[in-house]
TrEMBL record:
Residues 41-260 form the Histidine kinase domain. Keywords: Kinase, Membrane, Phosphoprotein, Transferase, Transmembrane, Transmembrane helix, Two-component regulatory system. GO terms for biological process: cellular response to phosphate starvation. GO terms for molecular function: phosphoprotein phosphatase activity; phosphorelay sensor kinase activity. This is histidine kinase. It catalyses: ATP + protein L-histidine = ADP + protein N-phospho-L-histidine. It comes from the Bacteria. Its EC number is 2.7.13.3. One of its GO terms (cellular component) is plasma membrane.
Length: 273
């Protein structure tokens, strides 16, 4: 069909093409910035423990160094920084594998109640060390069946409960509650720990993000735990959120897809629809 104004048409097409190209270029620039920030974050996170280790080794190498007690103290601190480096590497490896899709989501049908009990058992000693009581608030008589990747959801629970120890109160408690929604179940992990300032909440699930208070309290961590958790939940096409009051505590809640059918055998693979 012939247009009454061909020059105007060509001009419109060129403008549209330029607009699309600009969107593509902006996206590439955003990705490039993201990569740059990511690398600079990684090197920063590695530098701190490495410099600390280097410092302790140099002090111990000094011929004048004679204080045995101080030497033991320095070695313990160096070892703590080695630990920090090793879980940084472990978490980085994990997140890069998750993001590249190298570890696919393997859905099975299982009882979420059983998984929570298992996780509690595996974390019992650590809870005792932190003087924290683990409470499973079971409101329903029947266990709830979900379709999810059991191992990955275990990791989500471990990360959230572990955080509740790290940022919890001595003599505090951590509870896990289940809420049945229409075709989902909501799992909530609640602590009565230090809580999180409201301004930090939107950034909490970003890689390497740590609030000032966790830094100042010298709590070990890579700042990747919640990024991993969010990735796992989103790979399940589910949601995770947090609510918190500074000084009172935090609740992290995530949803899972409920399995409608009754359970003939545990862990039957379910096809993702
Ligand atoms: P890490 O614990 O290794 O620093 P995470 O990604 O697990 O990394 O958590 C990011 C930050 O979110 C923590 O550094 C801490 O500041 C804050 N945070 C996480 N969980 C809690 C919690 N239960 N209570 C208070 N702050 C928390």
């Amino acid at each position: 069909q012939l247009s009454s104004d061909p020059i105007n048409d060509v001009e419109k097409e060129v403008k549209e093409w330029a607009r699309e190209k600009k969107i593509e270029i902006d996206e590439l620039k955003r990705q490039e910035k993201f990569r740059r920030d990511f690398l600079s974050n990684i090197s920063h996170e590695f530098k701190t423990p490495l410099f600390a280790i280097q410092g302790y080794i140099e002090a111990l190498q000094d011929d004048e160094f004679e204080d045995k007690q101080l030497a033991r103290d320095f070695l313990a601190k160096a070892a703590k920084n080695v630990d920090r480096l090793s879980y940084l590497i472990k978490d980085l490896d994990e997140i890069s594998k998750l993001e590249s899709g190298e570890i696919p989501i393997n859905l099975t049908r299982f009882k979420i109640n059983d998984l929570i009990k298992e996780v509690f058992e595996s974390m019992e000693i650590k809870a005792k060390q932190h003087n924290i009581k683990l409470i499973f608030k079971q409101k329903y008589d029947e266990p709830i069946l979900v379709n999810a990747d059991r191992e990955k959801i275990r990791q989500v629970l471990v990360n959230l409960i572990d955080n509740s120890f790290k940022y919890g109160n001595e003599e505090g408690n951590t509870s896990v509650s289940l809420f049945e929604l229409h075709d989902q179940v909501l799992v909530e992990v609640t602590d009565n720990g230090i809580g999180i300032e409201e301004k930090y909440l939107p950034r909490l699930f970003e890689r390497f993000f740590r609030t000032d208070s966790s830094r100042s309290r010298q709590i070990g961590g890579s700042g990747l735990g919640l990024a991993i958790v969010k990735h796992i939940i989103e790979a399940h096409e589910q949601t995770i959120n947090v609510r918190s009051t500074e000084g009172l505590g935090s609740t992290f809640g995530f949803t899972l897809q409920k399995s409608k059918q009754s359970l003939p055998f545990p862990n039957i693979p379910v096809l993702k629809t």
